[in-house]
Amino acid sequence: MTQGRAPGKVLLLGEHAVVYGHPALAAAIPRFVTVEVAPSAAARIELPGIATPPDVLQAAVEMAREAGWAAAFSARVQSEIPLGSGLGSSAALGVALARAFKPGCSPGEAAGLAMLLERVLHGAPSGVDPAACARGGIIFFTRGEPPQIEPVRGSAWLCVLLSGIARGTRSTVMPLQERRKSDAAVDPLLARLGELARQGRRLDNLGPLMDEAHALLRELGVSCPELERAVAALKAAGALGAKLTGAGGGGAAIGLARDEVHAREMASRTGGFAVQIGAP
Ligand code: PMV
């Protein structure tokens, strides 16, 4: 039996824009997906609480083959990240599976293998999620073949607040792709989101950048009433900046804290949880 583990992630800035070639700032969070893989007569994945969709199993079989795992497998998955919460559960699952199939593989290899699963779940993923889950820390990411990934030095405390709405990434990425074809207002908003990610990479003024990013994402139509309430609750608890994180339409919001004490205080006031991102 082999085991693989990978953290979830948050998008600090640049979600959606990153799909169209703009940069994004993403960070791993200390909430993990763990996978145990053992040889078995027929391929099987046990996900916590849900039946495994056939296309997910198919993608995992493809990953196993690419990773050089010879036999059929049975995989048992444990997750500290709620599925569909916008916190990178699918990318973390992909990276953890890659590490179980190919122990000792590099972050680049693990992220590459995880893309097989991302394509099934996301449609046209930028690759930022598996890159963040495979590398850890904070990264400045631009899509490409290969993607450009720069580690960002520094750390921050966040409060993560779930909206309570589970959803798939496709549910906002695909409609935005459609809207972009006929609405000339979309591209400048995406470009500005990418610019905010560029400005945010020094981590010294994240709060106002996050606030502006949330307003832009709302204008792009990827927020929802539950996320608006989550962002308002984080701001009311003193967040230096707050926004939806990831694809939107549900999932989670993040609020930037002054420090650990503030992050924990925000968490207890809002019902969220405090996380440190990056390395202090
Ligand atoms: O799956 P999520 O919620 O982490 O969203 C990923 C970020 C997007 O930019 C919306 C999609 C992508 O592929 O980059």
Describe this structure as you would to a colleague:
The chain is 41% helix and 26% strand. It is α+β, with helices and mostly antiparallel strands and 280 residues long. Helix 2 (89-101) crosses helix 3 (107-122) and helix 2 packs across helix 4. A hairpin with a 5-residue loop joins strand 5 and strand 6. The strands form 2 sheets. Strands 1, 2, 3, 4, 5 and 6 form a 6-stranded mixed β-sheet that branches. A 4-stranded antiparallel β-sheet has the order 8-9-7-10. The mean pLDDT is 95. The chain has helices at 54-67, 89-101, 107-122, 128-135, 170-182, 186-200, 206-219, 225-236, 260-270; strands at 2-13, 24-39, 44-46, 73-79, 138-142, 148-152, 154-162, 242-245, 252-256, 273-279. The longest helix has 16 residues, at 107-122. The protein has 9 helices and 10 strands.
* Proportion of strand residues: 25-35%
Radius of gyration: 18 Å
Helix-strand category: alpha+beta
Largest sheet: 6 strands, mixed
Mean pLDDT: 95
Bound molecules: (3R)-3-hydroxy-3-methyl-5-(phosphonooxy)pentanoic acid
> Which spans of ≥5 residues are poorly predicted at pLDDT below 50?
none
* Total of DSSP H or I helical runs spanning 4+ residues: 9
Shape: globular
Work out the helicity level.
40-55%
Distance between the termini: 35 Å
Please provide the count of β strands: 10
H-E string: EEEHEHHHEEEHHHHEEHE
